[in-house]
Design brief:
With about 280 residues, the protein is mainly α. Helix content is about 70%, strand content about 0%. The protein has 13 helices and 2 strands, in the order βααααβααααααααα. Helix 1 runs antiparallel to helix 4 and helix 4 crosses helix 5.
């Protein structure tokens, strides 16, 4: 077990979601059942915390799809919800195998400092247990937290640690880099290194393998072209910001080609040797 007593204030263990419930009422949102640990006569487990947060998120996503709230309102409400759930956590003693679940709620609450410590525990535990799925996912989440703390170089180095993942474990990499790490890290004097990470992540995505008989695998295949094309657009922007105009032009051309004939683009890219630009 790992003690975070010096970093985290004492917890009430009484369910209190006034800000969340008020926000949901104003929006007219209907959530799934939220579990009260006082009714269950036990501490709130990490599974219950994550289930509650997912229920809230699902309702808010439906509101966002309908245009009833903006993306920024969604993020603010999720952060408020997660912050209130954090108050129900017993963070003084965390089992290493549960650290990633607590880390998820803390990430949503934007409690970066405590999230970093828990995700570091989670990554080390995954390595010890040789759980490649958890190693990849938790390392990427740790990288996003580090970038959000302003530790951009550390975040880039951390994310780069999963570039050795096998094709069967590589599916999460690009999505985490493109949609979480890049937004947290860009514009902080390391755009060239960030671009290299993104470019390597695109290659991992192109070579990733999934089980196409599953719903998740089918969703991955259906969305692959969209994510890759968008990633090349973002890559061009990063290279522009880094003053690397030639690399930016190449990225824009790849964005065009990948959005046109993805099957041919994929074949051509996979046939090329992997090289580092920087």
């Amino acid at each position: 077990m790992h003690s975070l007593a010096r970093r985290v204030t004492s917890l009430t263990r009484i369910v209190r979601w006034p800000l969340l419930l008020a926000a949901m009422a104003c929006l007219g949102c209907q959530t799934g059942t939220l579990i009260d640990p006082t009714e269950a006569n036990s501490d709130m487990s990490p599974e219950i915390l994550r289930d509650n947060l997912k229920s809230i998120s699902d309702s808010l996503i439906q509101r966002r799809i309908k245009g009833e709230i903006t993306g920024e309102q969604y993020r603010e409400l999720i952060a408020k919800a997660a912050a209130e759930l954090v108050e129900e956590m017993d963070l003084e003693h965390v089992e290493p195998g549960e650290a990633w679940q607590y880390g998820e709620v803390l990430r949503a609450a934007r409690n970066w400092e405590v999230a970093e410590k828990l995700l570091q525990i989670a990554v080390e535990h995954a390595k010890t247990k040789k759980s490649e799925d958890r190693r990849v996912n938790d390392t990427l989440r740790l990288a996003q937290v580090q970038a959000s703390l302003g530790k951009v170089q550390a975040g880039i180095r951390t994310a780069s640690e999963v570039l050795d993942a096998k094709p069967s474990d590589s599916a999460p990499i690009l999505l985490a880099v493109l949609y979480e790490i890049v937004p947290a890290a860009r514009g902080r004097e390391h755009d060239a290194e960030l671009a290299e990470l993104l470019e390597a992540s695109i290659q991992k995505h192109l070579g990733a393998t999934v089980e196409t008989s599953t719903q998740e695998g089918q969703a991955f295949m259906a969305a692959r072209q969209h994510h890759v094309s968008g990633a090349y657009v973002q890559l061009a922007n990063l290279y522009d910001a880094a003053g690397m105009s030639s690399a930016a032009a190449e990225a824009r051309e790849k964005a065009r080609l990948s959005s046109s004939d993805f099957t041919e683009f994929l074949r051509a890219e996979l046939a090329k040797p992997v090289t580092k630009r920087l």
